[in-house]
Amino acid sequence: MNTVTTRTRQLQNIIPSIATSDGAGVKLRRSIGAQTNLRVDPFLMLDEFGTDNPGDYIAGFPPHPHRGFETVTYMLDGRMQHRDHLGNVGDLGPGSVQWMTAGRGVIHSEMPQQESGRMRGFQLWINLPAREKMKPAAYRDIPPTEIPQVELPGGGRVKVIAGTLVLADKQISGPVNNCARRLSTDPLYFDVALPAGASFRHAVNAEHSAFLYAYEGSLEVGAAGQLQKLAAQAAGVLSAGDEVAVVAGKKGARFILLAARPLHEPVVQRGPFVMNTREEIEQAMLDYQNGEFVKSAA
Ligand code: FE
User: Which fold has domain 148-265?
Assistant: First the structure.
């Protein structure tokens, strides 16, 4: 058995989200990736969208390309429709996840399917290693019924989107990156809700990067006696260690926990293209202009 002392990860850096817009004018809050020095390898970007005002989302994301990474959309409220050049049409309703591997190229649109009401969720970009950047595009729609929801003994619950939740003697794997099929970045993606004062503690691979993003309430993060506060609408990047430990604030907390194996490769990004060199970015733009993204569907 492992006799090494557990090291609880502390808050190393807080990346506040900033209001911005993307697509055809969708208002959102960007934390990870708001600047190129604010990535958390292999996580390139995290956007939170959340509004009751249709004017903030109605224009959606008309057709646009991606190459070299994965996009993960997690809907909390509202409904979007995904369409791509491969012929996939995905209905993204409340609690569903869309896991898209852009690989060598995808052209898709993400458009709201409602004219009023609340639209809320996240889009996360996870980088691909150099050897996988040009693999064929893949698309997966995951309905909420496929995402395990696990009650915690001390109150609260965890939705296991990617990776495996270990709780006492139980192991609960999410639909993505489970034992049957591991992604090379080996991502863990939990959505956790805690009542006021409840705690949550979970092992995280010591070699992986990890961060938390609170979207309701607040958290105290770290080992007992060394707790550090993380307010909502900010990403808390975690230090090295092999477990994460948090306590919910006075109003409880809802947060996402992300961890994954870092790639340690150069990142060159131009908008929706993320490659390792400038030459590869230039090639991506040429391929897009020449219609190669569409051809690669065949
Ligand atoms: Fe997109």
Answer: Jelly Rolls (2.60.120)
